[in-house]
Amino acid sequence: MINTKEKHQFQSETKQLLHLMINSLYSSKEIFIRELISNGSDAIDKMRFTILSKNIDNKLSCNMYIRITLDRKEKKIIISDNGIGMTKNEVIKNLGMIANSGTKKFINTIKNQNNQHNQLIGNFGVGFYSSFMVAEKVVVKTKHMDANQDDYGIIWESDGKGEYIIDKIQKKEHGTDIELYLKSTEIQFLENWKIQNIIEKYSNHISIPIQLQEYDKKNNTVLWKQINQGQALWTRNKLQITKDEYKKFYYSITKDTEKPLIWTHNTVEGTYEYTCLLYIPSKSIWNILDQEKQKNGLKLYVKKIFIMDDANQFLPNYLRFIKGILDTNNLPLNISREILQENKSTNILRISLTKRILKLIKKLSLENPNKYKIFFKEFGPILKEGIAEDTTNQEIIASLLRFTSMKYNSKEQTLSLTEYITNMHAEQNKIYFLIAENYDAANTSPHLEIFRKNKIDVLLLSERIDDWMMHYLTIFQNKKFQSISKFDPDSEKLFGKIDNNINITPEIQDFLNKIQNTLQKHIASVKLSQRLVDSPAVLITDKNAISPQMSKLFKAAGQNIPSIKYIFEINPNHSLIKKIIKIKNTEKINIWIQTLFDQALLSTHGTLKNPNNFIKNINQLLTEK
């Protein structure tokens, strides 16, 4: 044979990853079996897809398998598949470097999350390298199906310490053999029972036969014993599938270590035929809020043939936490992501799956409130995106949202809008809410004072998405939403007029005029307040004005927006206001007016443009005799 041996260096990030695999990861080492079996299954799925989509001779697809050989003498495990195989360039690309943009994040994350290694390995697509947790040397022998008329394949060999060797070898059949020379501390993986238990735990659902080599001493022959069920779980009758089997399937397709909260398994027949098995996880993943980088968890099959991971065309973005599979007969096998976007069947399936998932979430909320608390804590902020994204289903999405409120007096969000409406004040016709930087700021806001006095509940919203969401959530069950930090004539009618004992005397009017003149750059108007009980002043905005929280978000994003002109409300019954009104010194009263405004602005906005000036004024007022 011609000597074609080549020595290559691993990509720098791959070196870091291998170092972690070899030296730092010690939990659940058995997952290397899961990952290599999964890779073999993918290779066979790609083979089937290529054969069917290109009308290639079907003989190639006969008797497909994944085989495991345990060589106790050489302390070696061999995992083989007769899938599509790899070319030389693919070997270098797939085994010599990691073409995953999230690799750096993976390396940083894996250093800090010691108890989630087996989940992270699968999630980041670096499963092959888990081999080095148990092997001191790994040899890969492979041959691509396109080279089936050739007698040669490719061999890849490495100890994982910085370099690998590639050479040409004689190989008759297409497919891949992965040989793991085990470390002396890992010979437990040479036991048949151990391998069978691992396959049952992680890979029992895989439709391709997984065969374990056994020696028949009586007949002196080698046998291949199938050790998995060999039928795609979602194709079975759901009445014959146990809860444990559903959970094991979930673990295998998601690499999650936590139990799913709930799942739904359905087969739909008719014009549009499909089977779906969809899960709601019990825990969100680290990048769930990043819409661009967080991928959908749906795997697409067409006529039981695997087509693609992350089939985000079939679910709206606000349901991206859903995991599972979709198997349909209504799409061509050679469909691409681009064609999926324009395909009529895609839209029909998307509508159907969305309704099915929302129905599943509704079921969870009604039948298991404790699990629903877990769900909303993990995925509530994501579900809120649906208010703007999915106007068709906005009413049901709104019914699934949970809030905290002034009366509830807890940070935990468990109050539904339906419950809020049921408990509304007899004369109340709106759903009142307040948006603030955090829960404590909302719960102590001066805006709540008149509502507390009149025992009218207010929803307290403090998540980043809430302000944006409330621009789209305007009505629920025929009740309009009203921000209590904005001017609302109906609220003023509800609370009645200003105390009749307060007369707008020339002295009070003069004080209001001074406020208007002093703060004319910052306020649209000044008025006596009927919403304050314990606070001296508060800021409200016009009903059409942008909120302070939204203003901050736009400014943080580099957007130029006009300054907010507030309505400055004064509580004439407050002792501080009564004291300030009596001050005759113009300079001193101006300082008090500015301080009152800054106090109200700090309460509303959470920040001040010039906090040092505010502190200076406070100090000056405190030190005056």
Which value, in Å, is the CA radius of gyration?
Answer: 33 Å
Choose one word for the global shape. elongated
Helix content: 25-40%
Strand fraction band?
Answer: 15-25%
In CATH's first tier, which class of the largest domain applies? Alpha Beta
Largest sheet: 9 strands, mixed
Strand order of the largest sheet: 1-6-5-4-7-3-2-8-9
Counting DSSP H or I runs of 4 or more residues, the number of helices is: 22
- Report low-confidence residues grouped into runs of 5 or more: 99-103, 114-125, 497-501
Tell me the span between the first and last alpha carbons.
102 Å
CATH superfamily of the largest domain: Histidine kinase-like ATPase, C-terminal domain
Q: Find the count of extended strands (DSSP E, 2+ residues).
A: 22
- According to CATH, the fold-level topology of the largest domain is Heat Shock Protein 90
* Average predicted confidence as pLDDT: 85
Overall tally of structural domains: 4
CATH architecture of the largest domain: 2-Layer Sandwich
Q: Structural class of the secondary structure composition? A: alpha+beta
Give keywords.
nine-stranded mixed sheet; 625 residues; Ribosomal Protein S5, domain 2; five-stranded mixed sheet; Rossmann fold; 37% helix; 4 domains; elongated; alpha+beta; Heat Shock Protein 90; single chain; 22 strands
What does this structure look like?
Helices cover 37% and strands 20% of the residues. Mean pLDDT is 85; it is low at 99-103, 114-125 and 497-501. The protein has four domains: 6-226, Histidine kinase-like ATPase, C-terminal domain (Heat Shock Protein 90); 233-377, Ribosomal Protein S5, domain 2 (2-Layer Sandwich), CATH 3.30.230; 403-495, Rossmann fold (3-Layer(aba) Sandwich), CATH 3.40.50; 506-623, Four Helix Bundle (Hemerythrin (Met), subunit A) (Up-down Bundle). The chain has 22 helices and 22 strands. The strands form four sheets. The chain has a nine-stranded mixed sheet with strand order 1-6-5-4-7-3-2-8-9, with helices on one face. A five-stranded mixed sheet has the order 10-11-14-12-13, sandwiched between helices. It has 625 residues and is an alpha+beta fold.
